[in-house]
Amino acid sequence: MQAVILAGGEGFRLRPLTRSRPKALIPVGNHPIIEYTINALVENGIPDITVVVGYRREQVVRYLNQSELDINVVVQEKQLGAADALKCAEESVTGRFILLPGDNYIDSASVAQIKSAGNALLVAEHPQPSNFGVVTIRDGQVCRIIEKPDIYPGLTVSTGVFSLDETFFDNLNSLEIPEAVNRMIRNGTPVRAIPTVGWQDAIYPWNLLKMNSRVLKSLSACRSGYISRGATISGSVQIGKATKIGPGTVIEGPVIIGDDCVIGPDACIMPDTSIGSRVSVEPFTYLKNSIIMDDVKISSHSRCVDSVIGEGAVLSDHISTVTGIFSAEDSGSGRLITGEFGAILGDRVSAAPFTVFKHCIVGNNVSIEEGRLISGTVKDNVVVK
């Protein structure tokens, strides 16, 4: 059996985090999202994998070249949607295949359920179905997929994971994938609806926190580096090589910390936190339920909760995030969107002491030169004085 992973999309709604990287390479649990999909396939004995790349494709190709697998790469020259991306892979497909999005988390058990199911779709319940294709089901069979409806008939959505065969390409003919599946069903080919075991998408940046929490649930404890005898570590905690954990530091898993980090002394790292490599967390700083990417510095007496901090951010002392409800208009649909989080900071944000981030989104390369309350949305490359 083969697999086709679609990893060509930009993930516009995840900006500022996708300005410099494709969505599939956003680190969650210190690993690119697409890595979980690839691992789930390999664990199910499916090493014949084709990845369709597009937006910032050189980054995805560079990542895939580091793999021990012989992964076939197909280029989508223009980002014309998922159906066009799949068409780009047509010549690589013979027989039955699994189609997967490269920017969703999917676990091995879910792949196991669908790989031998014939024509099938993995479905899941979601509290915000209008962001997805809503699936109507009768007696375990898909009746119809309604793409991103304003009024939806239920909470069951498509995960974008399908089991198909090469004849599916005959149904595309410039249609999007959900409508092509609908055509297949109308023409008499049944498609089974299979509930997923573990799946998570991230439509907006704050959704990454839920994905991160899900990923860390299966984290295995592994501790390298130097850990002071005065540190207290409990639960599933993974610590990378050459990382130093100072005395008085408390870490409560699940937590993952990358290589070459300096944590503490007297820092507090609470559950559902991912810390990348070469990160510095100074004394009396508190982190919880957050994604801290590579090369970030968080100075002393700071508090970062329910937040995503982009690469190379430099946060001075006495920085804090305030969790609350963020609301804005979705630029694509015009709908009002809301999310509960502390802060989303893009790459290379720098903030002066005593800055407070109040459930806000701050763009890449933003410099905050005086400590103040930041709320709402701050665009890329802005200087806040």
Could you say what the CATH architecture of the largest domain is?
A: Alpha-Beta Complex
CATH class of the largest domain: Alpha Beta
Q: What can be said about the biggest beta sheet?
A: 10 strands, parallel
Oligomerization category of the chains in this entry? single chain
What's the pLDDT, averaged over the residues? 92
Q: Classify the helix fraction into a percent range.
A: 10-25%
Number of domains: 2
Structural class: alpha/beta
CATH topology of the largest domain: Spore Coat Polysaccharide Biosynthesis Protein SpsA, Chain A
What is the fourth-level CATH superfamily of the largest domain?
A: Spore Coat Polysaccharide Biosynthesis Protein SpsA, Chain A
Proportion of residues in extended strands: 35-45%
Number of helices: 7
